[in-house]
Design goal:
heterodimer, A: alpha/beta, Rossmann fold, 3 domains, 4-stranded parallel beta sheet, 14 strands, globular, B: Rossmann fold, 6-stranded mixed beta sheet, 23 helices, about 15% strand
Chain lengths: ~450, ~550
């Protein structure tokens, strides 16, 4: 397995990737757009882009992922894709009848410079129907950037400040997470009795129930009136700066809704911070229910600390998720010695800080020295692990090849997970999500210990 | 069957006028009489239509090149294209030399904005240098993605410079930008051309080292299909020179000219190489279908007829008999479950046809079938090829024409014998999908999401064989759905063992207890067990 990866690290200066830890913007934009109620994402480019993104999202969620494409040919690439896009808009509304068509661009249409904005402005759509767009050049940022850009487009196109006094509600921008996480964030906020608008919201869209009927547009997703109303909220809670801060910043500029950018609430610390923010903002006490949950989590962490304390771990994936995971495993007493994301620097066109600084800020107080890299690839991560072996690898499905090559247990967290199911329904955020992470991590380590134990050392109780 | 022209028209009527006119030409109901019915295929999908089609890059790098294990495949472009074609297609490979098996590696130039503005040639050259240093392969492929052609990167020049720099290493460049052609099909053709022009026949071998040497073309070893076919062929006594391209290798491809017969499994993706091998080396090709028990037996017997060797024929029959006696009792068990069911079969280029064999053997009737990216000949048979009009989209795909190789061209059978054989076996011939389908069934090209839903509502099949993008749409409707691209991560489905595996998997889909839970118990029962009336409890 991966026998061509040498232990000796030689500097690669080309800027090319070997076994990437990121993919391109449009897939993130497609996923974000699915979080609008009755929305059909549209890929302005070649058919292959749309097919690949639908394939990958479907494999991760195991649910229908509907999206249309401008079906570029060589002719449209030479003469511009305006005609294709206009025809697409007409056909989509006639045949597939969405409320919203959310167009994202591709490297093709960005390279030829199609003016999607103008075409959208002049599009002839019926009352109550909307076309929005986001520029998502595949050669900038990553899938997380694409998610961020489409989320921002929701603000650009819809958010309005119509009330003189802001309403007693907040916006929650959950970031590039699973519907299971979005549900859990909503439950936490609801238990504080805070009114909110979550956008995008893919719950009920990519985790729709089996009823014997196929619904092209399932019940879930943020509605257009809700998206408009985001301009009337007290503030926006942007969870995960890479995926969410751009939309929150724009809401601040456009509608005077302040942005509060927090970490994705993975683990006890980040969840505490999110709840404390709500508590302070609304002078509302944390519910008994949540306090009990937190106590249970701390109980579990303490009961089992010897399962993971001092174990070394390598973590890779999307920056907001990896940051949260790193903070949590440090809370557990583990030592993350390799931390890598494929997504470069800050999010596109924003002044958001760097991933590497975020991670170092977590590791330094814990006295942990680590390899930390943004815009990295899995070839690099694997070489790090060959030089400094770890007890555990945490990341998406692509980590399984390294895990097998190095005989290290893998805990699957993040996007995409293509070889296991159920993950998208269950949270990794909040106290409950943290319990689930503890279970996954300690099970992986203990299963390994069981596997490796000699007969005489094989224990009933651990 | 519940289908007629009126019902078909009712579906089409829901389209805008232009779409209706277009889609009407891509669908027909098979008629009883022998007269051939014309279908429109390999033409543009209408913008805005939710199609299953992919792009030329997917056909070139994803389908044809990707499975060749000992070449390093570099994708020149932004990250996504390389990423999505990395280990996603289940083309398995194993190698005696793991240091020359690059299957699990994805190498991309990861073009950034500056590369788009200033050109990506220098970056590509540097990536090649790194690939040489780390992997030290004998051959490198470079596949273009959309922006490459638009910004005018000269990949050919970069490849040539790299060949000069690294003596003895071949660097092949493929201009398979995603916008070329109308589907994956363009990419197959582009890959076929260059493999034929630059790799196949460049080996030193003059003759195969064993008797009955064959190439297996258009077999990508999805779920191990190719290995199952090879198992059977080897048992009979064939020498498999090369497989194109499942578990394929550079060395084997170079010596593919030494085969005495070329077998064509997936006609759509590889018929170009098959034809060119005949022109260049005088080796005929035989259309085979190793999907289904009967298909496998027919293919093996046709091969025996071609080689016309007593020993080989006896061995063929012995292997068939032994395999049948082993698998038939198991297969029969599953047939009981499947028999009487109906299916739709909409797949890529050739499986939309091939799998109908297996369905029939299991007693499943195929009511509707079609291809994502096929050409008219895949529906109507190769006889229509001279009548296919070339359009702007097909004209921009380079057409490489092979010529007879002066040294290595050799007729493998005499012209007289070839003609006699052609009357008996599909040598250089493919009759297409329509030929094998029953009157009344629907044949559909580039079926889209809207039509998928409409035809399901109308005909209510028990099984829908398609790909991942349809799978959960179908399943939500409570219908058994089977991925015929990825085999739902199972396989092999080819050959004798594959038929059994397929029967087992399909049956599992039919009898899974999970279907029974779709309706919650409270939906069938009123909240009150009975109603109280004046007369008492009803």
């Amino acid at each position: 397995m991966l026998d061509c990866t040498p232990k000796e690290i030689t500097e690669r200066k080309s800027g090319g990737m070997i076994n990437p830890a990121k993919t391109c913007q449009p897939i993130g934009a497609m996923y974000a757009a699915l979080g609008i109620h009755k929305c059909l994402p549209h890929s302005h480019g070649s058919q292959g882009c749309c097919s690949y993104h639908r394939m990958h999202l479907t494999r991760h969620f195991r649910d229908p992922i509907m999206a249309s494409t401008s079906c570029f040919t060589e002719g449209s690439s030479v003469f511009g894709g305006g005609a294709n896009l206009k025809a697409s808009i007409q056909n989509v509304f006639h045949i597939y009848k969405p409320d919203v068509m959310a167009i994202h661009t591709t490297c093709l249409t960005e390279t030829i410079g199609d003016d999607v904005s103008s075409i959208v402005k002049t599009a002839d759509v019926a009352d109550g129907k909307f076309v929005i767009h986001a520029n998502t050049p595949s050669y900038v940022g990553s899938h997380v950037t694409g998610f961020s850009n489409m989320t921002k487009a929701m603000v650009t196109y819809f958010a309005e400040s119509t009330e003189t006094v802001k309403k007693d509600q907040i916006n929650i921008i959950p970031g590039f997470v699973n519907p299971g996480d979005m549900r859990e964030i909503k439950r936490l906020v609801e238990s504080m009795a805070v009114e909110y608008i979550m956008f995008p919201d893919t719950t009920g869209v990519v985790d729709s129930p089996m009823t014997g009927e196929f619904e092209m547009y399932p019940e879930g997703g943020t509605t257009v009136p809700q998206l408009k109303d985001t301009g009337n909220s007290q503030f926006s809670l942007a969870l995960g700066r890479f995926a969410s801060s751009d939309a929150a910043d724009l809401l601040s500029k456009k509608c005077n809704v302040p942005a509060v950018v927090l970490k994705t609430p993975i683990g006890i610390k980040a969840t505490d911070v999110m709840l404390m923010t709500l508590r302070t903002s609304f002078s509302r006490e944390i519910s008994k229910e949540l306090e009990v949950e937190r106590g249970q989590l701390v109980d579990i962490m303490t009961d089992t600390h010897f399962h993971f304390h001092g174990k070394t771990v390598a973590i890779f994936g999307d920056p907001d998720i990896v940051t949260g995971l790193t903070e949590f495993v440090v809370s557990l007493g583990m030592r993350p010695i390799h931390v890598l994301t494929g997504t470069p620097g800050g999010s596109s066109n924003s002044v958001a800080g760097s991933f590497e600084d975020d991670i170092k800020a977590i590791l330094e107080p814990a006295g942990i020295e680590a390899n930390v890299k943004s815009a990295g690839d899995l070839f690099t991560l694997h070489q790090w692990m060959k030089n400094q072996p770890v007890d555990l690898l945490i990341g998406n499905t692509y980590g399984k090849y390294i895990a097998r090559a190095e005989d290290v247990p893998l805990v699957r967290v993040g996007f995409p997970i293509l070889d296991r199911s159920v993950h998208s329904y269950l949270p990794i955020v909040g106290y409950r999500g943290a319990m689930r992470l503890v279970e996954m991590i300690s099970n992986a380590l203990l299963d390994r210990a069981d596997r490796d134990a000699k007969d005489e050392d094989f224990e009933l109780v651990m | 069957m519940g289908m007629n022209e009126k019902k078909l028209q009712a579906i089409l009527d829901q389209y805008p006028a232009k779409v209706q006119k277009n889609r009407g030409k891509h669908i027909f109901i098979k008629k009883d009489d022998a007269e051939s019915q014309v279908i429109e295929a390999n033409t543009r999908t209408i913008p805005g239509i939710i199609t299953n089609r992919g792009c030329a890059y997917a056909g070139c790098k994803g389908v044809v090149l990707g499975p060749i294990k000992d070449m390093v495949h570099i994708v020149h472009g932004p990250i996504g294209c390389g990423y999505y074609a990395w280990n996603t297609r289940r083309n398995k490979a194993k190698s005696d030399d793991p240091k020359q098996n690059f299957m699990n590696y994805c190498i991309s130039t990861d073009m950034q904005e500056s590369d788009i503005v200033f050109g990506g040639e220098k970056k590509l050259a540097k990536v090649i240098d790194e690939v040489m240093e780390i992997f030290d392969p004998k051959c490198i492929t470079i596949s273009a993605t959309c922006p490459v052609g638009l910004i005018g990167d000269d990949m050919g020049a970069v490849a040539k410079a790299a060949e000069a720099k690294y003596e003895g290493v071949q660097v092949l460049s493929f201009s398979c930008e995603g916008y070329k052609g109308v589907s994956q099909s363009a990419g197959h053709h582009i890959a076929n051309n260059i493999l034929m022009e630059k790799v196949i026949g460049t080996g030193d071998m003059e003759a195969a080292p064993a008797k009955f040497p064959i190439n297996l073309l258009g077999e990508y070893n999805i779920g191990g299909d190719g290995w199952e076919v090879e198992r059977i062929l080897k048992e009979i006594g064939y020498h498999v020179v090369s497989v194109m391209t499942g578990d394929g290798s550079y060395e084997a491809l170079k010596n593919a000219h030494t085969a005495e017969l070329n077998l064509v499994q997936c006609h759509r993706s590889i018929n170009y190489i098959a034809e060119m091998l005949e022109t260049k080396y005088g080796t005929p090709w035989l259309k085979v279908n190793f999907i289904g028990i009967q298909g496998t037996m027919d293919s093996l017997r046709n091969m025996a007829l071609y080689f016309d060797d007593k020993e080989l024929t006896l061995r063929t029959e012995a292997v068939i008999a032994s395999e049948l006696s082993r698998i038939e009792p198991i297969f029969e068990q599953y047939k009981k479950i499947c028999s009487g069911k109906t299916a739709f079969c909409f797949v890529g280029g050739s499986r939309g046809h091939h799998f109908q064999n297996l369905f029939a053997e299991l007693g499943i009737e195929t009511m509707l079938a079609g291809y994502e990216f096929a050409h008219r000949d895949d529906y109507e048979g190769r006889d229509v090829i001279p009548t296919i009009k070339t359009d702007a989209d097909s004209k921009n795909i380079p057409h490489y024409t092979a010529e007879a190789d002066e040294k290595r061209f050799r007729l493998k059978v005499s012209p007289e014998k070839l003609e006699a054989l052609k009357a008996k076996i599909p040598l250089g011939q493919y009759n297409g999908m329509s030929f094998d389908m029953k009157a009344g069934s629907i044949i559909i090209d580039d079926m889209n999401h809207f039509e998928t839903e409409e035809f399901i509502k109308l005909l209510k099949p028990d099984l829908f064989a398609s790909g991942i993008k349809d799978k959960y749409v179908i399943q939500k409707m409570g219908i058994n759905s089977k991925q015929i691209h990825s085999y739902d991560y199972s396989g092999p489905y080819a050959g004798f063992n594959g038929a059994v595996q397929f029967a087992k998997d399909i049956s599992m889909g039919f009898v899974s207890p999970t279907w029974n839970f779709i309706t919650p118990p409270w939906k069938d029962q009123p909240l009150l067990e009975g109603t109280v009336t004046e007369e008492g409890v009803a």
